[in-house]
Amino acid sequence: MQQPTTIRRALDLAARSVPVLPLRAGKIPFGNCTDCTGNACGGRPNMKTAGLCQCPDVCHAWAAATTDPHTLTSPPWASAWRRASAVAYHPGGAGVTVVDLDDAAAVDWARATLPATRTVPTTRGEHWISRGTMPSSNGVRPGVDVKSLMGYARWLGNGTGTTAPLPDAVRALKTPPATRRPPQRLSVRLRGHGGECPHRTPTYLERGIAMAVQRIGEARGAVHATVYRTFLAVLSTHGRCGCLTDTHVNRLFTAAQVKGETPRHCTDAWTNALTTLGL
């Protein structure tokens, strides 16, 4: 039986030392397996969690990318390729950085600001690819994301032009700090609890956050909607008492980004949930 186009393309890239992974419809990675849901396994090496997961499944988004042809063609990867809609690659693992220009205005900015390099047309703009790596950052400018270390990009072809060294102008791009409202606190005592918030019970709060992370990780479609509904559920339970910390919020944001959401999308979903609840 002939191999799907996706796996043939993936094997070709892997032979050129480009680490690859399959994408589902919507340009998002496959979700973690049951054992790895919510990073219960600790994550893969080189992730922020610095875990030691050796899962053979297509887990942990960009961290699953590989050049090993045996892994790419063996179960459960073989099944994933049959269901895949596109091939992605890990730019940092290939030694490059992708400046993802999402619209015409962003392309105009790049042409006026950055030195020429290899370019690849996308649906709405262009990928500018440079030799060298840096931390991935989304929303560094309107319509501009940087994809390199700890990130993935959709493979759209070889493009045109010569790959130039990563310029300082790109290295200087950083994601603006996300603006989130501080944790909300009640101005009156909670009746029957002597003023102590019941959500401060570590087990109760931890279970709620873990369930939210799992819900996001298990999303098989409509990721934007799932992230928003999950944020809304967390805030409806824990948003008025001040028990949520930046650590809790960052866990939720990280889970959403593993599913392909950008920090900008996470911030928007969080802000919209706060507004809906009047917080």
Largest sheet: 6 strands, mixed
Shape: globular
- H-E order: HEEHHEEHEEEEEEHHHHH
Structural class: alpha+beta
Summed over residues and divided by their number, the pLDDT gives a mean of 82
Radius of gyration: 21 Å
Distance between the termini: 57 Å
Helix amount: 25-40%
Low-confidence segments, ≥5 residues, pLDDT <50? 178-196
Total beta strands: 10
Number of helices: 9
Percent range for β-strand residues: 5-15%
What does the model show?
The protein has 279 residues and is α+β, with helices and mostly antiparallel strands. It contains 9 helices and 10 strands. The strands form 2 sheets. Strands 4, 5, 6, 7, 8 and 10 form a 6-stranded mixed beta sheet that branches. It has a 4-stranded antiparallel beta sheet with strand order 2-1-3-9. A hairpin with a 2-residue loop joins strand 7 and strand 8. Helix 6 packs antiparallel against helix 7, helix 6 runs parallel beside helix 8 and helix 7 (223-238) crosses helix 9 (263-277). The termini are far apart. The relative contact order is 0.13. Residues 178-196 have low confidence and may be disordered.
Topology:
Blueprint: H1 5-15, E1 20-24, E2 28-29, H2 69-73, H3 77-83, E3 86-89, E4 96-101, H4 104-113, E5 118-121, E6 126-131, E7 137-141, E8 144-147, E9 153-154, E10 164-165, H5 168-171, H6 202-217, H7 223-238, H8 246-258, H9 263-277
Helix pairs in contact: 6-7, 6-8, 7-9
